[in-house]
Amino acid sequence: MYSSETIIRVRYAETDRMGYVYYGNYAAFFESGRVEALRALGLSYREMEEQGIMLPVLSFNIKYYKPAFFDDILTIRTSVKEMPSGTRIHFHYETLNEKKVTINEGETTHAFLSGGRPVAVPQVVIDKLGVFLVKKPQ
Amino acid sequence: MYSSETIIRVRYAETDRMGYVYYGNYAAFFESGRVEALRALGLSYREMEEQGIMLPVLSFNIKYYKPAFFDDILTIRTSVKEMPSGTRIHFHYETLNEKKVTINEGETTHAFLSGGRPVAVPQVVIDKLGVFLVKKPQ
Amino acid sequence: MYSSETIIRVRYAETDRMGYVYYGNYAAFFESGRVEALRALGLSYREMEEQGIMLPVLSFNIKYYKPAFFDDILTIRTSVKEMPSGTRIHFHYETLNEKKVTINEGETTHAFLSGGRPVAVPQVVIDKLGVFLVKKPQ
Amino acid sequence: MYSSETIIRVRYAETDRMGYVYYGNYAAFFESGRVEALRALGLSYREMEEQGIMLPVLSFNIKYYKPAFFDDILTIRTSVKEMPSGTRIHFHYETLNEKKVTINEGETTHAFLSGGRPVAVPQVVIDKLGVFLVKKPQ
What we know:
Chain A has a single domain (2-130), classed as Hotdog Thioesterase (Thiol Ester Dehydrase, Chain A). In chain A, strand 7 and strand 8 form a beta hairpin. Chain A has 138 residues and is of the alpha+beta class. In chain A, the strands form two sheets. A five-stranded antiparallel sheet of chain A has the order 1-4-5-6-3, covered by helices on one side. The first copy, chain A, has helices at 26-40, 45-50, 123-130; strands spanning 2-9, 53-54, 57-64, 73-80, 88-96, 102-111, 113-114, 117-118. The interface between A and B is medium-sized, with 21 and 21 residues.
């Protein structure tokens, strides 16, 4: 498994009138975790886009166990649990609060697109992840 | 099945640099659909909160089929497919673009909370939904 | 003066833990007012962009008199008070609550850009606004 | 002058279809700068709120010189230029990109509120700022 951690300080803007982080804002927190997980591998999502590769989200699931609050320091633990194959990649996320309690868990599935069409997972992604994950037999 | 439709005009603020509605923004669109679905039933979510009942989100799932763009007029079709029982309620959502094509589908599960503790679905909610849905045998 | 009104229903997502609409969210509400004010004139901002004209914001000022709350129906009154000249246009905004009380006032200044460079206000904008505003002597 | 710097990595969620950081998002970036500027002084905005003191925004002004882009590392330089007196405080903000170019400048004015009413600037705020700023003669 490949895993990486990103720290997020909750903004007032991200809370709602219940005092909780609004449930939709975790999508941006997970994006942050995903981008940093790729960067820690040596992959820049910005550069991938500049080279014409995009990673739109195909699905997003999240289960909320506990709320987060203004000024909390959250840890987003982002993992790739299996080597991507075909044209897709899956990310798993866990949000931990300052007491290291898991307050929610989620996952996203993404397609690799080039010129608007699905393309095979780029070799560089396979190579970087290959240090941590076993390549699937073809 | 109880179903209701809400119209949303996509704001520039809601797009990202791909030109798509950012994937996390559908959480707010679905909230809008949910609040309007309750209002069409004669239930005000604001009043429920003022009476001490809250409906935090326990889970959120969404599958994206096609993107939406700036200035698009989207229809959020919100449904309650089965009578809520116990302390929870499920909502289903479908987003349609101007060509009436379904561009994504999702669902949320909510707990009814009062004073921070789960409580039975309020009778008024059961009664209003009872016009459209069969009550589950106890 | 040219003036137009747009209605916005406040989303839960747009509130903060004070229970107020977060101060930064009025930027998106004013964008909505601006886009609808142009549409009411017969001008589509989306089409302008598709023709290569962009209107980035150069400045934004807002004074807050009263808060807005979840589920409030707000009226954004957007005005163009003087005929744009040179490469810029100014919009004024007033947000009214359900009691028709002005809860904030703001303004934005925008440049007309084409290919990344400032260009003269398009003739079609001058013509449409000319019905309401006196053209400035050159 | 009291001054403090906060680093922000631009999220995809914060860009718009022009590829720029949406103009309204700087309100949240400045909030982040403000909260960190207070924290660096030894003041927790969260604790202030828990003690019943709130700091709603009375006005917000910003001038945009250049855009920011996805994945940019921005520096928010937050300053208090004069000792607050009466019931208000002013913050100034400068956003710098990775080349240390100022891409926008803004300011916010806030009221100190307790129980919904304006109150004098708390003594602890005066004391902490007094290390950097001269107290106004009464």
